[in-house]
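Hi everyone,

Forwarding the result from last night's run.
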Amino acid sequence: MSTKYLHVHKLRRVYVWEKPVRIYHWLNVVVLLALIITGFYIGNPLAQLSTKEASDRYTMGWFRYVHFVAAYIFFFNFLFRIYWGFVGNKYANWRQFVPFSKKFYKEMWYVIRMDILMLKGREHMSIGHNAMAGFTYFLTFLAFLVQCLTGFGLYAAMSTWWFPKLFAWVPSLFGGDIITRQIHHWAMWFFILFAIVHVYLVFYHDYVEGRGEMSSMGGGWKFIEEEVFERNHHQTPNPTKDTK
């Protein structure tokens, strides 16, 4: 009679996402939802039939107010994330996002083969972001920059505060308000498509890997295979702090 052995992975609890990263993430979720909803309304407002004066209803005014407040939060949250990319742990470091080495590109291609092309092979395991996810977030940061520049550029002409007026040069750079507004609109669709793909991949990896992918952005902890952790241990700063 043949004997079958069940291989059980030994898991290590690793603190991956620090609290500032988690706050940044969920704050972005809230403000992006507010920006998208109000942005759609501002771009194509609903026709409202009423006997009241427009100033009494102030519907567009409230949508614009929420949009502008969310834009300020979005901008300063983005600046904070750049700062944390230099002072945070390894998994938040800017090197996780910028493809500056051959190893980075090689890992990107491997993840594309496994996750997108669904080719057979050994599943890629990483503790924080894999290279493809990191590069995607790098593109997202560039989209953040474009959205902030075009948004404040459009706002500069009507604002009385000095800060938005710093961006008054942006519309002329892109060829006028109409094109600037169009770029601002396209960037919004980038975030919508990114959010759909992002949520799908989080659920997909949580199902395939079973490492607490979804809950990690709530508490910060992941469950990592012991062999994977040891393979990446030399790249992890403060290992006694990151594990428990």
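The CA atoms of residues 191 and 197 lie 10 Å apart.

Cheers,
N.
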